[in-house]
Protein 1
Amino acid sequence: MKTISEVIGLGPKIEMTEEEWKKRLTTEQFRVLRMKGTEMPFSGELLYNKEKGVYQCAACGNPLFRSDHKFDSGTGWPSFTEAIEGSVELLPDYSHGMKRVEVRCSRCGGHLGHVFDDGPSPSRKRFCINCAALSFEKK
Ligand code: FE
């Protein structure tokens, strides 16, 4: 099956029904991206990826993070010090009795993970992202 961006090209926002997303995504991708799920730590392959390239939204292909900004946080999820400008939206998230900042794909609205203020200098940001929400393109 073609990716979404192959079908409609990179560009404006994507809106699809949850039924359409369900057909497009794997069960785990749907659970994370559309139902704000969190994968088990240390369960995703891209956690260990050290190749140079760009991490894209697994749902829509939007370029989100560069490998240069990936670091080993020890948490079990891929961690980045910054996102590609304009690629993500940050929203307050008060679920599960915590005050967190949710990270979403700005193009398709897919849930990616959360961002915390305990990352390395100089940005001090730690974008904590589910592997299930990412695809990788080697550059
Ligand atoms: Fe997306």
Protein 2
Amino acid sequence: MLDLFIDKTHDENRQGERFMSTSTEEIVYTKRFYIESYGCQMNFSDSEIVASILNKSGFGPTSNFEDADVVLLNTCSIREKAEQTIRNRLQTFRQIKKQKPAMLIGVLGCMAERLKSKFLEEEKLVDIVIGPDAYRALPALIEEAGEGQRAVNVLLSREETYADISPVRLNSNGVTGFVSIMRGCNNMCSFCVVPFTRGRERSRDAHSIINECAELFNDGYREVTLLGQNVDSYYWIDESKDEIVTFAKLLEKVALINPLLRVRFSTSHPKDITDEVLFTISKYENICDYIHLPVQSGSTRILQLMNRTYTREWYLAKIKRIREIIPDCGISSDIITGFCTETEDDHGDTLTLMEYARYDMSYMFFYSERPGTLAARRYADDIPEETKRRRLSEVVKLQNQLSQASNKNDVGKIFKVLIEGDSKKSDENWMGRSSQNKVVIFPKAENDFRKGDYAFVKINDCTGATLIGRTVSTI
Ligand code: 5AD
Ligand code: SF4
């Protein structure tokens, strides 16, 4: 039987050594877990929930997998390449287990959900398989696996939101934190495996979201990103007040916690983002002027095959609306090249849409067929990889030009920057972000700022990915 420990000190938690409870009683974890996360921000956020569940069961974190009793991989299935990377990593852990047979290896997340017991039976790569809605069962599964039993739980839930679990912040900079507001996805984009691996959409209790954000603020954090696959369809009924909490209402409630707490969110679906959300962003200075609005393709025909439920024109009208209501809004996108039947004309439509939208940044991929998705069942993956890659390189080249142009346009402007820490290249410079989510670098000399402070920075130079400037006392 494991001893029970309670820990509230995030920083100490990260060191993975000894822990003090708030009542000065010393807590020693008897076992260690090591966790690696892959894929989207939601997975990283889930790992923090898993860490909290394990802490309560007597497992402390370690950043060295060789010291771990349990090694966990929180996995991603979105593209084949992600799965391949994870398989390679599992092989490495398998080798270590040969010298240390008591060490347990577990796969969590989307790949666990997709491959289920195949991992245990056919591949014999792991000891524990646990899907995204079953993390509460992890301590019991670890015990079962330790006794040599089959340890699988891939049940998806219609209710689980882990609302009551206070995540343990892992690898955090102490300034920016992620808060999950919903789980799953009801959109059936035909290329996407997420609805199958993460299940039906459900929204988390708004009170627990506000409490978590307020707690982060009290712990010194100055930015929260509200996370969901499709945040605009957040919907929760507060029965005590007979109030419907929409995403716009939720944004407002989080913004009102404190004007010094910045609020971001990800991801929006173009079909669901409302004027109410846009007006809420423009009303509150601390809700960042930045929207990630994945388009996926610029061709209406391809969008239809992707089941995105909007046309090229409809999407562009949405971009226009955003710029009307929030004139300085940063906008980014996700783009897929080489989807089934995509012609050169369709590809050309993606390039022209990018130009119209003037994206500040994009995440760009070539299409990777995922087993079980609507596209895999309905359409042939008929674009040669060479063509997919060539189109992707054209999209990337154009995005680089657009990012460069967008950054050049910011030279001479002043931005309010939240300082996240040292710049990667030199600890003589600070790194922070503008409201529009652009990385801003500026010298530490001439001021006595600290991490988590806001600075006004006048931009005097830029690269494709970064703004460079100097602080000014006021706008
Ligand atoms: N192939 C390539 N890219 C994909 N994405 C999702 N599924 C696939 C796929 N099968 C991309 C989409 C999505 C982002 C998170 O990943 O652009 O918005
Ligand atoms: Fe996948 Fe579409 Fe849901 Fe995003 S909105 S997770 S792309 S199904």
